[in-house]
């Protein structure tokens, strides 16, 4: 709370209501953030001057407070208004350049002791909660680091630390290289069909499509000449055309390319099959 007591003492003569004390507290938060008050009212004046103090007429209107601020090292105009509504004080902070507005509603009795307006040690209540509300809800978002920026900065610091550590390791002649790869790198492993990992390769490639032998003998891929035989075109007197889909595996049965005249000799009984002495 450094600085709040000095500010409160400098304006204690102008504090005549609980809302005055609350406006004084919010003004102190603005100063801590890096803003400076340049005057009261809505419109800029030729007498505007950056100051950490409140203007002399800051509490002349107990129902509506209007204060103007600028960054200590910039010219952006910020207009702070506080409107008393029943037992609450509604704050609005507007950036005059972008028209961006933030607001905060405070229950006066939650943070100001109306019976101790001129005693600094007793006038404010639950200051930590009030300070957090002002920072998170009222102060301009662009002046507060976002979680995403903080996360990026943290990752950048970690990357820089890792890079410095690697340089130290590389420059150390006694350093023994690590056996495990660094994070983000992938060791080079040979393919599963390259020795010494080729054992059992036939199980992984049963048809031998990657070269070498497979487990399953496919007559259409056995490498033997087949005289242009295409099972999808049909086999005379055995399979009609289209019975085998194009590209389908087909295990031939019977002689291919030669028609047996009927009747088939295998279908006739052998000579003398009924002679019991043969």
TrEMBL record:
GO terms for cellular component: endoplasmic reticulum; proteasome complex. GO terms for biological process: proteasome-mediated ubiquitin-dependent protein catabolic process. InterPro entries: PI31-like (IPR045128), PI31_Prot_C (IPR013886), PI31_Prot_N (IPR021625). Keywords: Acetylation, Cytoplasm, Endoplasmic reticulum, Methylation, Phosphoprotein, Proteasome. Signal peptide: none annotated. Its main location: cytoplasm. It comes from the Eukaryota. It is found in: Cytoplasm; Endoplasmic reticulum. Residues 184-255 form the PI31 proteasome regulator C-terminal domain. GO terms for molecular function: endopeptidase inhibitor activity; proteasome binding. The keyword Repeat does not apply. The keyword Acetylation applies. Residues 131-278 are annotated as: Disordered. Residues 13-139 form the PI31 proteasome regulator N-terminal domain. Residues 149-175 have a biased composition (Basic and acidic residues). Plays an important role in control of proteasome function. Inhibits the hydrolysis of protein and peptide substrates by the 20S proteasome. Also inhibits the activation of the proteasome by the proteasome regulatory proteins PA700 and PA28. PANTHER family: PROTEASOME INHIBITOR (PTHR13266), PROTEASOME INHIBITOR PI31 SUBUNIT (PTHR13266:SF1). Belongs to the proteasome inhibitor PI31 family. This is Proteasome inhibitor PI31 subunit. It comes from Echeneis naucrates. The gene is LOC115043991.
